[in-house]
Amino acid sequence: MTILVTGGKGKTSSELSALLEARKLSYLVASRSPSKDGPSQHVRFDWLDHSTYDLPFDASADPITAVYLVAPEVIDSFTPMKAFIDHARRKGVKRFVLLSATVIPKGGPAYGKVHEYLETIGVEYGVVRPSWFMGMSSFSCRQVRFREGFVCSATQDGKVPFVAASDIAAVAFHLLTDETPHDTEYFIRGPELLSYEEVAQIISEAIGKPMKHERLSFEELKTKFISFGMPQDFATVLAGFDEQIAKGSEAELDDAVLKVTGRPPKSFREFALENRDNWI
């Protein structure tokens, strides 16, 4: 049995690969620019290039039986993901685990359609729907503003159960490897609800220098995203998510990480202290 991990250089995929490596399970990391570093086996794969769809199956010594699905960064992610899922099924893959998000409902846009599709085609599946990730890129309007001492958002006083990529990966690991398929979705949330004001304070304490929350409007945040090179469509969507947070869309907790993995999720303070050297 080999597990194919797409999104090979992403946060959750990297954490998942480390878990598979630690357990000495067979896996293959797929990305557009395969790395030769580290112990894992890498293979070229591009969601938008059908000629790469066979490469993971040709590269794997053992049959690929499960796939971790991380969507490509395109507006219509469903079309290429459906094409590869269908291809993988023809190659004998039995189980798929999708990285989605709390803000993307089943049947909704992008990978919400993938979620719905997996439920209808008779495969073993799981869907992880995390809230916002802990990490600099989640809080900084890119690293430029973070280095200037700001976390910026249009969330106002809205609160978020920020979650560590390692906790998302730990749940995905079980969905991929547990003998009995889960065949359900899990909302993956951290252990506490935090506003961006509180996030800024925790980071400030961890790194030993002032950090402030820069409050922006929807339009100001969208413009800032675009100024850092983000396509306008994505900038509009991401700024809209902040606007929903301000209305309370993410103010919810649950026990999925504990239920699936047997351990509680990491707190933001733990994460900040562990990563303080990366943020200074």
Automatic annotation (TrEMBL):
The keyword Disulfide bond appears for this protein: no
Coiled-coil regions listed: none
Residue stretches making up the NmrA-like domain: 79-248
Keyword Chaperone: no
Gene Ontology annotations of biological process type: indole alkaloid biosynthetic process
GO molecular-function terms, A-Z: oxidoreductase activity
InterPro entries, per the entry: Ergot_Alk_Oxidoreductase (IPR051604), Ergot_alkaloid_biosynthesis (IPR019901), NAD(P)-bd_dom_sf (IPR036291), NmrA-like (IPR008030)
Family according to the record: Belongs to the fgaFS/easG family.
Protein name: NmrA-like domain-containing protein
Organism in which the protein naturally occurs: Exophiala aquamarina CBS 119918
